[in-house]
TrEMBL record:
It comes from the Bacteria. This is MFS transporter. It comes from Bradyrhizobium manausense. Residues 19-428 form the Major facilitator superfamily (MFS) profile domain. SUPFAM superfamilies: MFS general substrate transporter. InterPro entries: MFS (IPR011701), MFS_dom (IPR020846), MFS_trans_sf (IPR036259), Sugar_transporter_CS (IPR005829). GO terms for cellular component: plasma membrane. Keywords: Cell membrane, Membrane, Transmembrane, Transmembrane helix, Transport. Its main location: membrane. It is a multi-pass membrane protein. The keyword Transcription does not apply. It holds the Pfam family MFS_1. It is found in: Cell membrane.
Amino acid sequence: MTAATGVSGETERSTTTHVVWASALGTAIEWYDFLIYGTAAALVLNKLFFPSFDPFVGALAAFSTYAVGFLARPIGGAIIGHYGDRLGRKRMLVATMIAMGLGTFLIGCLPTYSQIGVWAPILLVILRFVQGIGLGGEWSGAVVMVVEHAGNRRGFYGSLVQIGFPVGVAASTGMFGLMTQLPEAYFLSWGWRVPFWISILLVGVGLIVRLKLAETPHFKEVVERKEVLAQPVWEVLRRDWRSFLLAIGITISEVGLAYLLTVFTVLYATTKLGLPRQVILNAVVYAALVEFATLPLAGWLSDLFGRKALYVAGGVFTVALAFPLFWFLDTREPVLITLALVVTMTLTHALLFGPKAAFVPELFRTKVRYSGASLGANVAAALSGGFSPLIATALLGWTGTSWPVSLYIIALSVITIIATLMTPETARDALKS
């Protein structure tokens, strides 16, 4: 009996480990696909797809197309979440990877404004929309897959999936950093395309890994009990609306921070401060690399002390660092800039993003977990993530200084702190059936 139990336990741990790392790898590829667009928008897309505009207006236009991907994410979350709760988590994770990979690769193939005129930005918007649809179901599917395998260590195992974000940031920013070493003419003609083209190879690897994943035991139980819902999205809005609104609230600061720290800071440093691109790109990469350690640490701590404690701490640190972040950037000193991004990313984004992989799915029942997590996270992403670089750029253009951006960061954080205080603690409870 003991031997059988031991073998069963080893098999379960082996399955969980495989699911975690397969999900993390796939998520890293998906984030790479999505994030290279943000770096490209800050560095080059305004020149190639909106060249008739003033540079500042061109940047606003580029960030507007960046926001399109986030507007598509709730739509993708609703569609993919619906089928994820009806057909299974695994099938949808394969579908999202295909959608993201094709959209990203084709962006790298697009003719520019000088070649086909207004059709260039139109096609760019369409492909960005496709990217958003794919990512709308990717993150939630990956974390639901892990959380439903993870037993009582959901915070830690879920946070390992979150490593995909800093991997994507480091890989996408690092790839562009490498390409910017080319002569300017080469970078503008073909160098910027290479990061997009590489995506197709990464997606091939990710598909092979994901096709080997096992469906979650929780979803299998729903199927066996014949409790699969016909309209899970409608069920979320009808019966789980409070959890849906809380998921938006606890997510809104983290997702806004993610893109302010990795996208807007690139624009701010290169245009407002006139720094070489490599200085800020290196700083972003180093900050992302530190999150390799801080995200799992935050997830582990959330299993010990609860999700809410980590979220409140992250919110308070965000308020405290909103102004010092830009004070350090304004020094124009590479070491201080890197230090500012590393500390800010660690004490704000990591404390929120690490536990999020468990916190958001735990708010919903198994029958609607994929749909609920997708809608909550992606509506928040549409409200703050996609528009945060655009809003920050507009605020910077309005005043010529960073203080309104700091106030914007504080406002997002206050919303998250209030939502966290209203959310029940989920760390020590079993998943809702």
